[in-house]
Design goal:
CATH architecture of the largest domain: 3-Layer(bba) Sandwich
Number of domains: 2
Number of helices: 12
CATH topology of the largest domain: FAD/NAD(P)-binding domain
CATH class of the largest domain: Alpha Beta
Distance between the termini: 43 Å
CATH superfamily of the largest domain: FAD/NAD(P)-binding domain
Shape: globular
Low-confidence stretches: 184-190
Radius of gyration: 21 Å
Length: 437
């Protein structure tokens, strides 16, 4: 139990409190505020975006794989993407592994767009603040305890949306979960998916670099690693173009056995990720045409985490749901992305839906068991390991955030629990703002 030298003040009381300003949390906060709720968004870093501005530069999941691609995400996410294209800071490009059309953007510009949209909607932003506990009344979440430079803060709300990525609020509230430990994925020998430190290169001769096929790059990796000159744990990483001339971004490193709940484990992962980034850069510069004069200009703010805590919700999305393209009466979003399971070895397992098909994401996957007053959005939803390996794309995280934000605003307006919402009315509301469900 935490004992305070003095009682912490109530800094904000809001209709809706969103924890984490990644693609799910930022979309949730903007949506709830646009629906008329008072909204506070709390973030541990000094900028919004989460993985979308710290680690990655591509939205996947907006389109199904195949030709022609079908768009399956809309609404607030369209406004975000539209703002990037209006500024000439986004491009569309096919995924290296056939996972569908991606939207690659300038992450620095995206920080400003997330922020502008949130402020325009009326969201109260609180940066540099870490959530450390849930405030409970019986079995209902009523807010969070957070800490910043000024000390501990109480942030109260009628509805809390956990978009922390790691289900921090849900775990603190006693919601059952799995997947936080690499060995904790039930029935799976490969454990939680490894993390990746991405890095950005400038001064690349893009034309020459693009003449190297995926298969050629992978053969070069294997030869370089097997020859003993380079330590390359992953032999099928990718490097892709960006909206800027001469700039390429990688997704190559692979750091297994990361437990995000253990700071010692997470620290070791950050160190290893940066070591691998330097080694993959050395390989590219030495061995791959087009990279001879390249410069490693930046690495991801933190190691990218694909999988950590996954809650147990009122429904659990399964592998069978994904591969059979199952639809749900309470579906609040759609996904056509394949199962993309990165393992601790050299390869990645890909399993695809039937061509052009999608499955639904049930509202019940956002409703944690055992507590009320709480929704989750993003990669901490209720899903099995294999289903999670498909549904964790940022497009779907944004769509889940939109649904959670609208549900939170509706619950406050109607003075009812998020569990008591008429899901058909929620689905109607989502369609009215352009969501694809």
């Amino acid at each position: 139990m935490i004992h305070f030298h003095r009682e912490p003040p109530i800094l904000f009381e809001s209709d809706v409190l969103v924890v984490g300003s990644g693609s799910a949390g930022a979309t949730a906060a903007i949506t709830a505020a646009q629906q008329g709720a008072s909204v506070t968004l709390v973030e541990r870093y000094g900028f919004p975006g989460g993985i979308s501005t710290q680690v990655l530069d591509t939205f996947y999941g907006f389109y199904t794989p195949g030709d022609p691609p079908h768009k399956v995400v809309g609404g607030v996410p369209d406004a975000v993407v539209g703002a990037l294209f209006e500024r000439g800071l986004a491009i569309k490009r096919p995924n290296t592994y056939g996972a569908g059309l991606g939207i690659t953007y300038d992450p620095e510009a995206l920080k400003g767009i997330w922020e502008e949209m949130a402020l325009e909607a009326g969201v109260n932003l609180i940066y540099h603040t870490l959530v450390v506990d849930a405030l409970m009344e019986a079995e209902c979440v009523r807010g969070v305890l957070a800490v910043g430079k000024a000390g501990f803060l109480r942030l109260k709300a009628d509805v809390v949306i956990d978009a922390s990525g790691d289900a921090d609020v849900a775990a603190a509230a006693g919601v059952p979960f799995e997947g936080v430990s690499p060995a904790a994925v039930a029935g799976k020998g490969n454990g939680a998916q490894p993390g990746t430190t991405t890095f950005r290169l400038i001064n690349v001769d893009v034309n020459r670099a693009n003449n190297v096929s995926k298969e050629q790059l992978h053969r070069m990796m294997a030869v370089a690693a097997d020859g003993g000159r380079y330590r390359l744990p992953r032999r099928e990483g990718s490097v892709h173009i960006t909206p800027h001339d001469g700039v390429m971004v990688t997704n190559m490193t692979r750091v297994p056995d990361v437990d995000v709940s253990d700071p010692v484990s997470l620290t070791a992962a950050e160190v290893e990720g940066r070591r691998q980034a330097a080694e993959y850069y050395r390989f590219l510069k030495d061995c791959v045409p087009g990279y001879e004069n390249s410069v490693l200009i930046s690495q991801s703010t933190q190691i990218g985490i694909r999988e950590s805590r996954r809650i147990f919700g009122e429904y659990r999305l399964t592998r069978e749901d994904v591969l059979s393209a199952r639809k749900f009466e309470d579906g609040i979003a759609r996904c056509g992305a394949p199962i993309e399971d990165h393992n601790a070895g050299q390869e990645t397992r890909w399993e695809y839906l039937p061509p052009g098909e999608t499955y639904g994401i049930p509202y019940r996957c956002l409703l944690p068991q055992q507590v009320d007053g709480l929704l989750v959005a993003g990669r901490c939803l209720s899903a099995e390991h294999d289903a999670h390996a498909s549904v964790r794309s940022m497009g779907q995280c944004m769509a889940m955030g939109q649904a959670a934000g609208m549900a939170g605003a509706m619950a406050v307006k109607e003075q009812r629990s998020v569990r008591q919402l008429d899901v058909s009315r929620l689905r109607h509301g989502l369609r009215s703002v352009g969501a694809v469900i």
